[in-house]
C-alpha cells in the first residue's frame, strides 16, 4: 500500500509540483490550500504524513499541528517556512513536528527526510551501526550512564527531543550488554495501528484471521535474546499500553490463535520526546507502564546545548555520506564551519545529518562551502563567530561561548578553536576575567 501524504500549501503551482514529484516517487498525494480544508481531509481520510506551510490563507501550520494534537491525530508533521520565522519552526519542533524545511524546499532534502520518517514499523540490526562521536560534557555524562546500566538486564527509558539521537544511545546500551550477539530490533510505535498491535508484537498462527496465510513471528520473538527498542513509545494507544504492560509484568505472551505460552526473553529500551508525566496526568499514558519502562532513565540534551559536538558530528556525516554517495569531499570551509556553529539546530542531530548529506551531494569541490548547507540564520543575536572579522564579533563570541560552557575556560577555548592561554589573553584584553 502506498504512503499517503497531505500537502497543505496555498501556492497551487508549488503544491502541484510537489504532488507530481511524490506520485512519481511512489507516494499518493492530496493537496489543500488552507487549514479548514486540511482538517476536513484529516477527519475523513487516513494519511501517513502532513507537509504544511506556516502561512496559509485561512489558519496556519502551527495551529493545524495544535488541532491535530487535540484531536489525537498521530500523523508525522513537517512544517515549511519561507519567512523569517525561525521561532515558528522551533515552536513546531517543540510541539512534536518531525522537522521543518526552509523555502524554496529542495526536493532531494525533502525526499531524504520523508524516507527517514516513513520507515517500516520495525528495523532489525544484526551488528553495531557505529556510535556517533560526541565530546560534550552533557553527552559524556550520558555515556557514563549508558556504561553503568548496560550490563544489567533492566528496562531503560530514553527521553529527549526529536532527532537528538535516542536510537544511537539505545544501540550503545545493546552493544555494551551481554545481549550484544543477539538482535537489536527497533520498532516505530508511532505507526502501529491498535488493531494490528497484537499480531505485530506477539505474532499469529496460520488461519487465525482472513489474510493469515502463514504463521508469523511478532516483535518479541524476532528480538528473542536481544533488545527490543520501542521508539516513540508515548504514541501508543491505551489499549496497546495495557497489552504491553501485561507482557512485561508476566514475562510471557501468547501468539494470536495459539494456546502455547512463550517467554518474552528481550530487554526493553524505550524512547520518547513526550512529556510522560503530563501524559499521565492527562490520562494518555499509564503510570504503571511508565514505571515498568523507566527502571532507569536517561535524558538526552538538544544539539544546541552541546556545541562541542557539532563539528565532530558534521565531519562524521561528511565521511559517511561521501562514501555512500561516492562523492569525494575533504572537509568544510571556515565559513561553513562558522555557519554550522552559529545555527540553532531545532531539528537536532537528525537535521544536521540531513543538511550534511545534502551538502555532500551538491558540493562541486572537495571543500564544502556554506552555500551547500542550505542554512538560513535570520537571527544571529546568539551566534558564535568562529572566525571573527573584528573585535566586536570576537568579544561577543567569547562572552557567548563562556555562557554556553558555564564559565569553563578549557571547554570555551576548545569551542572557539584557540589555546586556553590565548583565551585568557583575549579575556584580559576585553575585561572579561571577572565574568
TrEMBL record:
Residue runs in coiled coils: none
Keyword DNA damage assigned: no
TM region positions: none
Presence of the UniProt keyword Nucleotide-binding in the record: yes
Domain Response regulatory: 4-118
Keywords, ordered alphabetically: ATP-binding, Nucleotide-binding, Phosphoprotein, Transcription, Transcription regulation
Sites bearing 4-aspartylphosphate, chain numbering: 53
Domain of life of the source: Bacteria
Domain Sigma-54 factor interaction: 132-361
InterPro entries in UniProt: AAA+_ATPase, AAA_lid_NorR, CheY-like_superfamily, Homeodomain-like_sf, HTH_Fis, P-loop_NTPase, Sig_transdc_resp-reg_receiver, Sigma_54_int
Official protein name in the record: Sigma-54 dependent transcriptional regulator
Organism: Parabacteroides absconsus
Lineage: Bacteria, Pseudomonadati, Bacteroidota, Bacteroidia, Bacteroidales
Amino acid at each position: 500500500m502506498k504512503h499517503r501524504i497531505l500537502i497543505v500549501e496555498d501556492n497551487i503551482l508549488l503544491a502541484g509540483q510537489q504532488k507530481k514529484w511524490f506520485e512519481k516517487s511512489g507516494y499518493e498525494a492530496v493537496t489543500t490550500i488552507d487549514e479548514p480544508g486540511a482538517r476536513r481531509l484529516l477527519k475523513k481520510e487516513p494519511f501517513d504524513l502532513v507537509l504544511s506551510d506556516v502561512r496559509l490563507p485561512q489558519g496556519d501550520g502551527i495551529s493545524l499541528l495544535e488541532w491535530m494534537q487535540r484531536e489525537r491525530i498521530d500523523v508525522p508533521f513537517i512544517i515549511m517556512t519561507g519567512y523569517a520565522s525561525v521561532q515558528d519552526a522551533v515552536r513546531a519542533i517543540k510541539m512534536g513536528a518531525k522537522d521543518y524545511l526552509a523555502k524554496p524546499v529542495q526536493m532531494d532534502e525533502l525526499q531524504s527526510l520523508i524516507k527517514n520518517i516513513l520507515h517500516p514499523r520495525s528495523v532489525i540490526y544484526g551488528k553495531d551501526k557505529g556510535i556517533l562521536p560526541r565530546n560534550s560534557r552533557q553527552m559524556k555524562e550520558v555515556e557514563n550512564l549508558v556504561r553503568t546500566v548496560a550490563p544489567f538486564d533492566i528496562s531503560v527509558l530514553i527521553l529527549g527531543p526529536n532527532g537528538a539521537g535516542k536510537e544511537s544511545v539505545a544501540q550503545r546500551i545493546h552493544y555494551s550488554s551481554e545481549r550484544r550477539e543477539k538482535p537489536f530490533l527497533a520498532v516505530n510505535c508511532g505507526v502501529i495501528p491498535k488493531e494490528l498491535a497484537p499480531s505485530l508484537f506477539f505474532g499469529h498462527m496460520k488461519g487465525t484471521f482472513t489474510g493469515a496465510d502463514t504463521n508469523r513471528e511478532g516483535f518479541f520473538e524476532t528480538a528473542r535474546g536481544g533488545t527490543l527498542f520501542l521508539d516513540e513509545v508515548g504514541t501508543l494507544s491505551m489499549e496497546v499500553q495495557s497489552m504491553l504492560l501485561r507482557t512485561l509484568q508476566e514475562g510471557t505472551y501468547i501468539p494470536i490463535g495459539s494456546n502455547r505460552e512463550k517467554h518474552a526473553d528481550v530487554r526493553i529500551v524505550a524512547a520518547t520526546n513526550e512529556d510522560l508525566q503530563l501524559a499521565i496526568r492527562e490520562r494518555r499514558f499509564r503510570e504503571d507502564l511508565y514505571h515498568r519502562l523507566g527502571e532507569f532513565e536517561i535524558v538526552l540534551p538538544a544539539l544546541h546545548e552541546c556545541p562541542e559536538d557539532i563539528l565532530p558530528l558534521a565531519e562524521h556525516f561528511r565521511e559517511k555520506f561521501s562514501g555512500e554517495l561516492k562523492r569525494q569531499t575533504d572537509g568544510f570551509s571556515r565559513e561553513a564551519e562558522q555557519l554550522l556553529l552559529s545555527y540553532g539546530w531545532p531539528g537536532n542531530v537528525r537535521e544536521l545529518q540531513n543538511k550534511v548529506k545534502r551538502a555532500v551531494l551538491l558540493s562541486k569541490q572537495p571543500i564544502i562551502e556554506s552555500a551547500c548547507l542550505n542554512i538560513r540564520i535570520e537571527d544571529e543575536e546568539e551566534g558564535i563567530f568562529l572566525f571573527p572579522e573584528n573585535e566586536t564579533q570576537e568579544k561577543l563570541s567569547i562572552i557567548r561561548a563562556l555562557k554556553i560552557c558555564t564559565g569553563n575556560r578549557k571547554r570555551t577555548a576548545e569551542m572557539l578553536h584557540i589555546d586556553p592561554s590565548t583565551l585568557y589573553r583575549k579575556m584580559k584584553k576585553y575585561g572579561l576575567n571577572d565574568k
